[in-house]
């Protein structure tokens, strides 16, 4: 039997995005401006989407933004509501919406902090197991001065000073009551909570959890986001077989190799290049050669296989991927591959626009076993690795 104490609290992230952000410059509010290739708000929303402890995300918006789509941002699964004239008013709107959704606790976060980490978010949520309020902070380490019209007038003790960050987490009911009772402005929700005698536990913040406020902050945020972005690495496999027929040469990995037979196929039957092409398509989850170049279409009869490989490589580039390396193994008793392997590597590297050190072509026999061992044809296996930074 499950007790009330075993029930996981329902947590909402309230993202405050109704401000205009004039200090950041630009023609549009800073939350819609791009950093590291995406709008700031897109980064922020995805940080909380990825958090397994957040059950709902409430985005508080200005009246000019509430009904329009923002390029580069998906609002799937996001509750959009209208904010107020001040930050406090906007947070209160978010708290009331959270109450409607039956939320137990809230994380209130500035949309302009796109670099917040899972560690910071999880730290706040964990602290709420025992505390009514929790917020991340960093110890002030620089010397602090006071001044009078640009002239140093004194120093300030920094031993008990901390820099505040978000998300600031609270049990919903007492914070909503505190907001309803608060008069005037406040720097953040911690100030409102303390005015209502709600204790707030400090959890470790992060130097990367910056608030984008000035034009200079965009460059710093971009460096952080690019450094933290997960690299997308994909691996694909390709396999192809062609039988021998009448002829006086074979085409393997783009190289014409003299031989007393030829490989049969709808195109030039370049078994090695076909395997590499399918490996790239496979890494992209983009079908295979037969789907892109159907053998039922006469235009591909006898076609050079570099057409297929160039197409696969261009598909990878169009989707933002770099081909890191390809490895092709030809399985045959003959012809001998070793003497022409370097030419094959050079040709394949040229077609894909790669350095030759990223292209491997090698061969093996099947010890006289199977159709390749009996000299009936050639098989090829290939692997391709694609990377998107």
From TrEMBL:
Protein's GO biological process: isopentenyl diphosphate biosynthetic process, methylerythritol 4-phosphate pathway; terpenoid biosynthetic process
Annotated positions binding a divalent metal cation: 240, 242, 274
Metabolic or biological pathway: Isoprenoid biosynthesis; isopentenyl diphosphate biosynthesis via DXP pathway; isopentenyl diphosphate from 1-deoxy-D-xylulose 5-phosphate: step 4/6; Isoprenoid biosynthesis; isopentenyl diphosphate biosynthesis via DXP pathway; isopentenyl diphosphate from 1-deoxy-D-xylulose 5-phosphate: step 2/6
Keyword field contains Membrane: no
Matches recorded under Gene3D superfamilies: 2-C-methyl-D-erythritol 2,4-cyclodiphosphate synthase, Spore Coat Polysaccharide Biosynthesis Protein SpsA, Chain A
Molecular functions per Gene Ontology: 2-C-methyl-D-erythritol 2,4-cyclodiphosphate synthase activity; 2-C-methyl-D-erythritol 4-phosphate cytidylyltransferase activity; metal ion binding
Site (Transition state stabilizer): 23, 30, 266, 365
SUPFAM superfamilies: IpsF-like, Nucleotide-diphospho-sugar transferases
Top-level taxon of the source organism: Bacteria
Ranges where the record places region 2-C-methyl-D-erythritol 4-phosphate cytidylyltransferase: 1-233
Site (Positions MEP for the nucleophilic attack): 158, 211
NCBIfam families named in the record: ispD, ispF, PRK09382.1
Protein name: Bifunctional enzyme IspD/IspF
Species, as recorded: Nereida ignava
Gene: ispDF
